[in-house]
Amino acid sequence: MKNLFYLLMIVLISGCSLKQEVGQINSYSIDFIQNNKSYKSSSKSILIEEPFVNSSFNSRSIFYSTKPYLFEEYAKNRWINLPSSMIHNSLLESFQSSKMFSLVSFEDAKIDYDYVLKTNVIKLYHEINADKSYVILKINFNLLKDEKLVKTFSYDKKVLVKENRPYEFVNSLNKTFEEIMEELFKEINNSSL
User: Fold this and answer.
1) Arithmetic mean of pLDDT over the chain
2) What is the CA radius of gyration of the chain?
3) Distance separating alpha carbons of residues 47 and 112, to the nearest angstrom
4) Does residue 55 carry a pLDDT above 70?
5) Which residues, at least 6 apart from 40, have a Cβ–Cβ distance to it below 8 Å?
6) Which of 6, 32, 120, 123 is most enclosed, with most CB atoms within 10 A?
């Protein structure tokens, strides 16, 4: 009985001394900033709907791929929010700062908007291939007027990341979004809205 007691005490003491290492989780955001360039201003209004992000990528996990058709998630790196929400907020801020539309809204306030922007993010991940890594981003913007499609703007990007690290991926992703927004605004600005 005494031996059992000593054995239990040793197990209990050694169990208390084993600490589980808790790793730090890094949280990243999709936050692209539109440079304030001069665009034609209009008295038109636009509703920016929440983007549809492929459900495979619309989670707090940041995905990477080392082989075709195989996606893994970073264990210690996460999105701070769902990509659909972060992209929605950045789109709203970008359109507001562009001053191309007199009213930019993100929620349907029972106003008759002149235009509606629907966004569809098809791919959003970090591709790692041998010693190089890339941002993979495929996105479509559908501009509608009176519920009819005016124009679709499609972007399919594969951008080299300078270092194979999650932080550099996120940084390059945000720069890629900025470039896409620049192209989108030029196209919208040059079209006859």
Assistant:
1) 88
2) 23
3) 9
4) yes
5) 100, 189
6) 32
**Better-predicted residue by pLDDT, 164 or 21:** 164
pLDDT 10s digits, 19-40: 445 579 999 999 987 666 778 8
pLDDT in tens, 65-74: 999 999 999 9
Residues 6+ apart with CB under 8 A from 115: 44, 45, 46, 47, 101, 143, 144, 145, 150, 193
In degrees to the nearest 10, what's the CA dihedral of 156, 158, 164, 169?
Answer: -30
Locus of tokens 């000593």: 6
The answer for residues whose C-beta is within 8 angstroms of residue 105's C-beta and 6 or more apart is 45, 46, 47, 48, 111, 113
Nearest to 118 by CA among 148, 160, 75, 158: 148
Quote the tokens at residue 69: 């058709």
Look up residue 53 and give its two tokens: 């992000």
